[in-house]
Amino acid sequence: RPILLINGPNLNLLGTREPQIYGSETLADVVGLAKQNAEKLNVKLYDFQSNHEGAIVDRIQQARDEGVKGIIINPGAYTHTSVAIRDALLGVNIPFIELHVSNVHAREPFRHHSYFSDKAVAIIVGFGVKGYGTHSFISSLVALMGIP
Ligand code: DQA
């Protein structure tokens, strides 16, 4: 019963990118933490990062063939622009959670609209990189997604 963590554009720069907003932990740090915690719950966590919209669409389509039960996605700036990624998530019909490191609602107005929020099972916003996971947090995600 795998779940898939997707990080969109510029999240490969976590740790060095605007640290006052995004913190000092790297993408490898947060993915490692999320993986450890998923293992404790007997959930396999696949992880994927891309700066390319089409590559993210392809990865979501592949998830259906892999039997992925739930997706956690931080679409980065595509949050505010991408109908294609939204359509891919709806197309494969896999429940997903939208995650943002920063509180997008406390930032520029163009970050207030998301193409994902109205379809997400839940939204994690503004917890910093900690949003990616403590043990109990991943377990509540799995429960929310209805993964047995
Ligand atoms: C982000 C918020 C987006 O507005 C921004 O474009 C990002 C990161 C976040 O995690 O806070 O790249 O998704």
Automatic annotation (TrEMBL):
Substrate binds at residues 74, 80, 87, 101-102, 111. Pathway: Aromatic compound metabolism; 3,4-dihydroxybenzoate biosynthesis; 3,4-dihydroxybenzoate from 3-dehydroquinate: step 1/2. The active site is at 22 (proton acceptor), 100 (proton donor). Keywords: Lyase, Quinate metabolism. GO terms for biological process: 3,4-dihydroxybenzoate biosynthetic process; quinate catabolic process. SUPFAM superfamilies: Type II 3-dehydroquinate dehydratase (SSF52304). GO terms for molecular function: 3-dehydroquinate dehydratase activity. The keyword Lyase applies. Its EC number is 4.2.1.10. It holds the Pfam family DHquinase_II. The keyword Lyase applies. InterPro entries: DHquinase_II, DHquinase_II_CS, DHquinase_II_sf. It catalyses: 3-dehydroquinate = 3-dehydroshikimate + H2O. Homododecamer. Adopts a ring-like structure, composed of an arrangement of two hexameric rings stacked on top of one another. Is involved in the catabolism of quinate. Allows the utilization of quinate as carbon source via the beta-ketoadipate pathway. PANTHER family: CATABOLIC 3-DEHYDROQUINASE. Belongs to the type-II 3-dehydroquinase family. This is Catabolic 3-dehydroquinase. The lineage of its organism: Eukaryota, Fungi, Dikarya, Basidiomycota, Agaricomycotina.
